[in-house]
Amino acid sequence: MERRAHRPRIADVAREAGVSKTAVSFAFNSPERLSLETADRIREVAESLGYRPHPVARMLTQRRTMTLGVLTPQALSVIFSNPFFAPFNEGIARAAEDEGYELHFISPIHGSLPAAVSRATVDGVVAIGVSAEHPEVGQIRRAGLPIVMVDAEDGEHSSVVIDEEGGARAAAAHLLELGHRDILVLAVEAPQVADERADRAAPAVTVRRLRGYRRAFESAGLTLDPSRVIAARASIDGGAAAFQGAWSQGLRPTAVLAMSDAMALGAIRAARELGLRVPAELSVVGFDDIDLASHVDPALTTVHQPIRQKGFEAARLLLEEVEQPASPSRHLRLETRLIVRGSTAPLHARGEVPGTQQ
Amino acid sequence: MERRAHRPRIADVAREAGVSKTAVSFAFNSPERLSLETADRIREVAESLGYRPHPVARMLTQRRTMTLGVLTPQALSVIFSNPFFAPFNEGIARAAEDEGYELHFISPIHGSLPAAVSRATVDGVVAIGVSAEHPEVGQIRRAGLPIVMVDAEDGEHSSVVIDEEGGARAAAAHLLELGHRDILVLAVEAPQVADERADRAAPAVTVRRLRGYRRAFESAGLTLDPSRVIAARASIDGGAAAFQGAWSQGLRPTAVLAMSDAMALGAIRAARELGLRVPAELSVVGFDDIDLASHVDPALTTVHQPIRQKGFEAARLLLEEVEQPASPSRHLRLETRLIVRGSTAPLHARGEVPGTQQ
DNA sequence: GTGTGCCGCTAAACCGGTTTTCTAAACCGG
DNA sequence: CCGGTTTAGAAAACCGGTTTAGCGGCACAC
């Protein structure tokens, strides 16, 4: 009686076929080193046993996983629900699958990103939402893996960034041209990491976009009042809460500059609940141009950034370094542009007076 | 002069600390088997060398990857752009990260799903869009991995399905109650696999939803004309093309039953381009209730299915089997319900006569 | 004084493959 | 018929860890 609860190993095939493990390996990987009949026979035996080379063992000997890692401090579940990540991941995926690579998301495990990194079986990493100073970046580097930074720059690693300052500037200039002066800025706050080190400094993205806003004000001979800048979570709820909070503190802005479309959507929702009409009584500009932006009513005026392309280019850069380890680091900068839709209007173009009905 | 271009291995740490490899391994995995000082010293040396246990080697010896696989015949890039997959993945991710598992998407590599499966380093698989007869399912089973089927049932494996027939029936009944009789059905066609075996049989999902539609007709003493059932790709473009095609063949339906929201949206777009107003001149019902459905104008009447929960439950089931291999297979069936929004209206409620302007 | 048990650690086997090195037989020209 | 080159495949080393078996030394009991 034969018991074989286990997955067949290469040794099983070798024994059954009366050859060495080497021969079996050759039959699959370099059949030209075997006589035709031997190779055929081995493959037949393997087939009948249902043998497949163990992928982990293969990774170990070949020293490659054929997998790209996507490193982010966001939780895994957020990555799939967040409308920004969808096209970004799509771009990465397209580049990866062109070359036969798989994708692996490196997100905090039980709150710890370093733990996730040390467990990741990848050939290289695309990092997003992580600055170059993050210890995880060094950790990856020491492991001998190439890394491409997205939305962050340092001289050492390859990177893909967008013209955030230019886009932000265009957004602010648009509102100023429409006559708005009392403008509320919704800034992206640092994501709460369930980590001991709580370096709650503003994200680099926030700093750069804020600089763009400020420049527009300066060009118009104005200054951006820091008390009008409110940090909030980059989500619909975060944007809604921030606008709501500002309103209840007595602020009565005529326009909102949001650093993400999600926040912009939240601000619109909160404004409506307060009885304000958009854009008649409140103009709102977002940032990112997520797919949803053109589908909401009114369609969102926002700064377009090529999210899909950003993911695609980052993955391309990474693949290059993975397949050619000696290649020098490269830096890409993609354009942004303002897209004017229906959520912004001239300051005094309001139709009727505000009603009390929502 | 010391050259060390390589990532430090356990042997390096052992040599440096003057102990055996075993001791180093113990220092990390079972420190209680070492004296406190030895363990500390080893960890110090490891730290100074920047040593991290190689994750692939670990997987090999521990015979577990702490990774769940998501098997689909769709291309990787589709998974991230498809509005159905977003919440589904989110649900899976939530369950996985609760238990400290990672996620790995098993999609065709250069068109071959079997190739992807044999390369996948996972502890178990959630399969979606794949029927139990697919050879890949057996392939996974032979590798000794547990598998949970989604939207497909067979006695052997665990599964999570929804009440498709009930949902479809409710959708059709809704249109019939509104007085519609000339109804166009947009069915989901089998995805084109870049594979030799072209078993272009209708997907099981299509069969079940169609049955639901038919039942509703029968209950109303009517029959569903097979010539009114058109198969198309489950995308916005697919739905648009299908409606457009039906129209140009002379069909003039007053309502559309789409088997996916994406197709429904496409039908609406095509109808508008033909000068039809929705819902005044054409009622449209979708299926799935993707996030976008409530945001479009008019908001889409559709059959809600708990996509997020479906992913979550599937992953829970899988995790159970992964952690307790002997456990029996289980079967879940989740409810669906019709959500009436703005894309459907009574047959003769049309406001004005159709204009020629679009 | 010696057997027993425990402590702290090491050597060797193992996970499941690939790759390098090596050998016996076949081939080949002179 | 002989030395040298191919050819087909085997043996062994290796990838980088973990785990099992075992060993020397010390404390304690008898």
Record keyword descriptors for this entry:
homodimer, 358 residues, alpha/beta, 434 Repressor (Amino-terminal Domain), Rossmann fold, 3 domains, 13 helices, 12 strands, elongated, DNA-binding
Q: Identify the overall geometry of chain A.
A: elongated
Tell me the number of helical segments of chain A per DSSP (H or I, 4 or more residues long): 13
Termini Cα gap of chain A: 78 Å
Number of strands of chain A: 12
Indicate the radius of gyration of chain A in whole angstroms: 27 Å
What is the percentage of strand-forming residues of chain A?
A: 15-25%
In short:
Chain A is 41% helix and 15% strand. The first copy, chain A, contains 13 helices and twelve strands. In chain A, the strands form two sheets. Chain A has a six-stranded parallel sheet, sandwiched between helices. A six-stranded mixed sheet of chain A has the order 7-6-8-9-10-12, with helices on both faces.
What does this structure look like?
Two copies of one chain form a homodimer. Helices cover 41% and strands 15% of the residues of chain A. The model of chain A is unreliable at 194-198 and 351-358 (pLDDT under 50). Chain A has a six-stranded parallel sheet, sandwiched between helices. In chain A, strands 7-6-8-9-10-12 form a six-stranded mixed sheet, sandwiched between helices. With 358 residues, chain A is an alpha/beta fold. The N and C termini of chain A lie far apart (78 Å). Chain A contains 13 helices and twelve strands. Chain A has helices at residues 10-17, 21-29, 36-49, 55-62, 76-81, 85-98, 113-119, 135-142, 164-177, 204-219, 236-248, 261-273, 307-323, and strands at residues 67-71, 102-106, 124-128, 147-150, 158-162, 183-188, 229-232, 255-258, 283-288, 301-304, 331-334, 337-339. At the A-B interface, helix 4, helix 5, helix 6, strand 2 and helix 7 of A face helix 4, helix 5, helix 6, strand 2 and helix 7 of B. The structure holds a DNA duplex (30 and 30 nucleotides).
